[in-house]
Design brief:
Chitinase_insertion_sf; 15 strands; endochitinase activity; about 400 residues; about 25% helix; TIM Barrel; alpha/beta; eight-stranded parallel barrel; five-stranded antiparallel β-sheet; about 20% strand
Length: about 400
């Protein structure tokens, strides 16, 4: 995703959305770039994953007073370029309020726009695992790219979204990177600015970003959601901060050299406008059992797939530590071992960094992993980005 390395898999119940019937590629004329049409800044965004409704957290559970944009995750794509809902029951059928008044997360989200008319909603396509598997086949053919773009336009218009977010994890070579940019061009033509938003979630690692012409992609996109988290996890040999703001002077492994600041610097060096970058913040922590500090070996992972949501951190019996130099928090003890995460202090640091660097703002994966009290990450971010609204009612 705009997501972690591994996310829960939505149900395979699907609902196909047929695109306009056109076989002629419409990519011959390049769309206008959007350098001067970026959304009003700063942005405080969250991703809403549709499977969270099964835990009693529909879109209406989000703390929308402090949110400017909601990314709805996920729609998927078939090899012919047709978009479809990843879980029809969650998306269009489940009884949200228990009284039959609102059916499905999509209708819940649409109804919220009546109460919060300034919020922008964007449909995210892809995600980790199966969600990104079709992208190489879909994007290598111009006709199929056009079909994808036309299908996206229909879905956006039918459900009242303000745009599309592409979460392809990840183009694996320069040829796929070229096809990714061509897909963005097809989408931009069907979803012209400023009427529609076109965004994309991209990883923080140079190993993936160097396959993409970021400068060209940036001219087509309104926003790039930089996934500045999951720097360390089960795939690394030693434990470490998974979303540190700053890189250490002496990193203990290659993963530890990556940080929010290094990812932003790399994107800017490749021609991405700072105001188009949203800094990603995880509303979850990563667990390393048997470890007590950064750089330790570990024996396994606690929680669900090695993670604990922020609303359940710190773990009972754990001691919280604030690493100001790294811009990271971790707790040690309890059932999580060493758990690396963000709290209100580090989010405030990241929001201040975003303002100082002229970034577009912050986004959170996910909005449902946050608390709704004084420790809220989303609210802390909003109040840091919008200090003039510091007296906003709870």
């Amino acid at each position: 995703m705009a997501s972690s390395q591994s996310k829960p898999k939505p149900s395979w119940r699907t609902h196909s959305w047929n695109p306009f019937k056109s076989k002629k590629s419409q990519e011959q004329d390049q769309p206008d770039n959007v350098e001067e049409t970026s959304p009003t800044l700063p942005i405080n965004a969250v991703y809403y994953p549709n499977w969270r409704v099964y835990k009693g957290l529909p879109p209406s559970s989000l703390n929308l007073r402090y949110i400017t944009h909601v990314f709805y995750a996920f729609a998927w794509v078939r090899n012919q370029g047709h978009l479809f809902f990843s879980d029809e029951h969650a998306d269009t059928e489940i009884d949200i309020n228990g009284d039959g008044s609102v059916k499905g997360c999509l209708n819940d989200l649409k109804s919220l726009k009546k109460r919060y008319p300034n919020i922008k909603t964007i449909l995210s396509v892809g995600g980790g695992g199966e969600g990104s598997v079709p992208f190489p086949a879909v994007t290598c053919n111009g006709i199929v790219r056009s079909s994808f773009a036309q299908s996206a336009r229909q879905m956006v218009d039918a459900f009242g979204f303000d745009g599309i977010d592409i979460d392809w994890e990840h183009p694996s070579d320069p040829k796929q990177g070229q096809h990714y940019v061509q897909l963005l061009a097809a989408l931009r033509k069907e979803l012209p600015a400023p009427k529609y938003l076109l965004t994309s979630a991209l990883p923080a690692g140079e190993w993936a970003l160097n396959n993409i012409d970021l400068g060209k992609a940036s001219t087509l996109l309104d926003l790039i959601n930089l996934m500045t988290y999951d720097f360390s996890g089960p795939w690394t040999n030693l434990c470490g901060h998974h979303a540190q703001l700053y890189s250490p002077k002496y990193p203990h492994n290659d993963a530890a050299s990556v940080s929010c600041t290094s990812a932003v610097a790399y994107a800017k060096s490749k021609g991405v406008f700072a105001r188009k970058i949203l800094l990603g913040v995880p509303a979850y922590g990563r667990s390393f059992l048997g470890a007590n500090k950064v750089g330790d070996c570990f024996t396994g992972h606690g929680g669900e797939e090695g993670t604990f949501e922020y609303l359940s951190l710190p773990r009972p019996g754990a001691v919280v530590n604030f690493d100001k130099d790294a811009g990271a928090v971790y707790c040690v003890g309890g059932d999580g071992g060493f758990v690396t995460y963000d709290d209100a202090r580090t989010v405030q640091m990241k929001a201040q960094f975003a303002l100082k660097e002229g970034l577009g703002g912050l986004f959170f994966w996910t909005g449902t992993g946050d608390t709704q009290d004084s420790t809220s990450l989303v609210e802390t971010s909003y109040r840091s980005l919008y200090p003039q609204d510091s007296n906003r009612e709870q």
